[in-house]
Fold 2Fe-2S iron-sulfur cluster-binding protein.
Amino acid sequence: HSPSSDIILRINGTSHSLTIDNRTTLLDVLRERLGLTGTKKGCDHGQCGACTVLVDGERVNSCLMFAVTAEEREIVSIEGVAALPDGGGELHPVQRAFLDHDGLQCGYCTPGQICSAIGALGEAGRGWPSHVTEDTATGVADASALDAREVRERMSGNLCRCGAYNGIVEAVLEAAGAQGAQDT
Ligand code: FES
Ligand code: FES
């Protein structure tokens, strides 16, 4: 018998009371306990990014996070991104950009790619290249200075077996408001 905990998880704006084995990952809670199967399980070992969600606005591999450590934090999965403050209601601008730029083929990696992209675009001023300057008044980085190389680097934790990378990079550049998205 392994130790279990009663926890409350806040996911996509809703609180869920759960009794879970302490070793349960956030990924398994999302998929198996709450039926939020938009978040995918690829490797289950932190290698592929398919399970990426946002925790307090930062991208996290949910297969590597114990659900008990996510208590009292704001979790957003792909099912909730459109309802984010910048979400646009029906489709988040990053989701729209993935559609417009064919940033997906089979779609298995896509929820993770999109959550990762939203997290990446929110990483204002933290380790961004020097040409992506932070506006000192607003504290917001000028994401439109991103280029394809930087986006590839920032998104390198999310693998795509279908090789939809060109479309993914274009989509992220567009969502960033970047000028001159790369040629295909
Ligand atoms: Fe989590 Fe692959 S399933 S990184
Ligand atoms: Fe198939 Fe990325 S679209 S794995």
